[in-house]
């Protein structure tokens, strides 16, 4: 006997007035983003409700699939939108990501998929994959050895360069340290103890730029770059919106758009917020004008970007989830008697 465990078996159809589809928005906080998403889902006649990943449970006595999602009873959502994964202990985060993996194993489309989120949350894996796929990104080193990190720093300083020490799982421009000789007085910022960064050194070559500095945030949805902004100022050289940078609309020129799309593809993300910076080596003479990708966000916020674009970002995300990801989705049949009930 076979049965479909993903969702309720209802399929979305553009002609239908009410789709009967039920979507879980995974988030630990409700606010502006979830409000926009719920409105966009409502506009598509989809019932979307916020679910805290911390309240989901793996429960092998919970028939038929052993996964309890609050608000969905014994059924599964038809799709999941991952809006936020709260920080916590290593065990808590593992369990929360495990729930997203389990949903996929049950045949539920998860947007973004947990594997892609894991790749993007781990900055070292992001750098590795960008480099592997030929996406331009600054030289980056990650390891557990203080001696190795020290050697990298010395080598870079000897070449008159600086490096940025970043938390492996950092976000919003928090905890970044720029190391190397200060431009002002030539004093050397030494390598801090790795105790402050979880005993791991993630070092990225600092990309020198003009003053006042800026970077780009490009939003890629379903393999297409849909909006871009320049983030100007902020906290010194750190241009995050959360650090007070001013958002300005930016032209999505083909090179910027292509580079962001390649970055999103390298990580296997459905949608991504890609941070880029002008490359000091870019030139028309060299034939390479591509910017450098600094990081790729798989659970990207878009409030700053929404303030400078006419595109309804929440609606674009919802449309991509429903019209591309869910439309292409084939429910996974699970057989009873295979240990899953
Ligand atoms: N290698 C670098 N060279 C120059 N500026 C950088 C570099 N890395 C980060 N920055 C600046 O710091 C910001 C935050 O870095 P990022 O890697 O995106 O971490 P977070 O996850 O905290 O946003 C970037 O948007 C950029 O403005
Ligand atoms: Mg960033």
UniProtKB/TrEMBL annotation:
Alphabetized PROSITE patterns for the sequence: ATP_GRASP
Cofactor: Mn(2+); Mg(2+)
UniProt entry tagged with the keyword Amino-acid biosynthesis: no
Domain ATP-grasp: start-end pairs: 127-322
Pfam families reported for this sequence: RimK (PF08443), Rimk_N (PF18030)
GO molecular function, one term: ligase activity, forming carbon-nitrogen bonds
Keywords: ATP-binding, Ligase, Magnesium, Manganese, Metal-binding, Nucleotide-binding, Ribonucleoprotein, Ribosomal protein
GO cellular component, one term: cytoplasm
Residue stretches spanning the membrane: none
PANTHER family (alphabetical): BETA-CITRYLGLUTAMATE SYNTHASE B-RELATED, RIBOSOMAL PROTEIN S6 MODIFICATION PROTEIN
The protein's name in its UniProt record: 30S ribosomal protein S6
Native organism: Caballeronia mineralivorans PML1(12)
